[in-house]
Amino acid sequence: MKKLIKEIENAPEKSGVYIFKNGKKYIYIGKAKNIKNRLKQHLQQVSIDPKEKKIFSQSVSVEWIITKTDYEAYVLENELIKQYKPKYNVRLKSGSSYPMIVITDEEYPTIKISRQYGEFEGAYFGPFIPAKTARAMKDLLHKLFKLRTCEPMPTRSLVCFDYHLGLCSGPCADKVSKKDYRFNAKVAKEFLSGNVKNVIYQLYDKIEYYSQKLMFEKASIVKDQILAIENVIRKQEVLGFEIKEADIFFFTDDSVFLAIVRGHRIVGKEILKIEEGFSDNLELSILTDYYSRGNLIPENIYLNRDLKDIQIFKKWLKEAKKSKVEVFFKIPEEIHGFILRNLPETNISTQLKESFENIFHFQLPSRIEGFDISTLQGMFTVGSCVVWENGKMNKKEYRRFKVKTVEGVDDYASLREVLFRRFRRYKEMDNPPKLVLIDGGKGQLKQGLIVKDALGLDNLRIFSLAKKEEILYTDDDRQIHLFDYQPLLKLFTKIRDEAHRFAISYNRKLREKEALKDILSQIKGIGKKRKEILYRTYKTVENIASAPEEELVKLGIPRTIAQNIKKYINST
Questions:
Q1: How many whole angstroms separate alpha carbon 150 and alpha carbon 499?
Q2: For residue 526, what are the contacts with CB-CB under 8 A and spacing of at least 6?
Q3: CATH classification of 522-571, choosing from 1.10.150, 2.40.160, 3.90.550, 1.20.120?
Q4: Of 218, 225, 435, 455, which residue is most buried, by most CB within 10 angstroms?
């Protein structure tokens, strides 16, 4: 420690990179406009920051490299971190270069997959997440646009097998004109970029031309191209954003959510895990690490946090991409909503709690129960109760109810029965739920309030959630449009949809059981007990039909009756 303090006192007051080392082992690498001042700041933090303490305790020396500018220091720091991988520098656990599609800049372009931007001369598209989609996209492009599959392209008189498979147009054997081939390469680029409207009219002109020349096979190929392109257009109309190309980074406490926008739509998402380490500027370290791995740099980058040294980062991006890159510190609302819906529950818990308390003015309960009713024309009417607890659905606590007192179609009466049976149990619990959610609108909410008042549950809050509009009705006469509050939308729709699913599955189960028992009642020798055994084991008629006769015998069904079962079911 004394040696380190002495070296810090002798450090230069100039810009550059400093390196904490233990022999040949690199402990931490940083940059600074003033190396001496920055090292003193590290030293002052040793007594209060555990990470700083570890850096000093595991280092035996500190070195530095002086640079002319702060930008040079930033570039050098990045290169040294990549080369030596210091123990306490923040790095990404994941995010290693994702595959990209490249349409090469050649006389007859081909399609390649690359994980390193700039590896080949050509137009880059992607990245593709998950990685297997890059190979699938390459195969599709060969099928649609017939770009050559050979590398390098030979000159020959006979075409290869890929030509006969429809994966290549055969430029090596002069089976396609150079003009048509390069047009197909252009359309492939537009297809990948999402700018398909730029070429679709030209493709229709080609169909007309080929049809007039009776070149129907070529016209058919162009029709397939148009069909694929129109599918892309339809997707854009559903998922279209104003942004054409961007990477969106949403920083949380222990990870980064990455959303990739290409061609005005989200084409990929990934959770980037962060290794535990130290950084003066976490966001800059993560972004630099990500793009230093060879990942494609888009036209726009969006962040949910401010970034120190923004001008240095922009300059580095421009030199890496050879064109200007815009960096924004506010994520567009529609993409922000997409990210919140797709974040793991642990990453939105703080935001969810804050949003819940701000809107409803009480703390988010640790347990919420959701209810729904399912019926089929007044038959097999059932209710469901699902449980959200401490951030996730607790299936062990789910309950289901067969409605007993209501005949015919009466959703309100059925709901009152189910709620009464469940709410009555709340009076016996030490820590009953403080909030329940009912699938439905104002009418369903009113039934809940009737039962609540009847049982005197003064501390229970009741909400209901209508489908499609996603309007939450509260017991204090408020209507909350959940599309305006994405964390709440994710919470309440998850509970509502799970209650709906659980109710329908129970309704279907009862119907299947009744249908099976009706069929089994027609078979001589099948009584109540054997019906129950067969139902519990097989659930459906189809399963019994496919079960071996020996299996039925092992269940205690006499062989003659087992034969009768198989014969009857297979004849119906």
A1: 55
A2: 520, 534, 561, 565
A3: 1.10.150
A4: 225
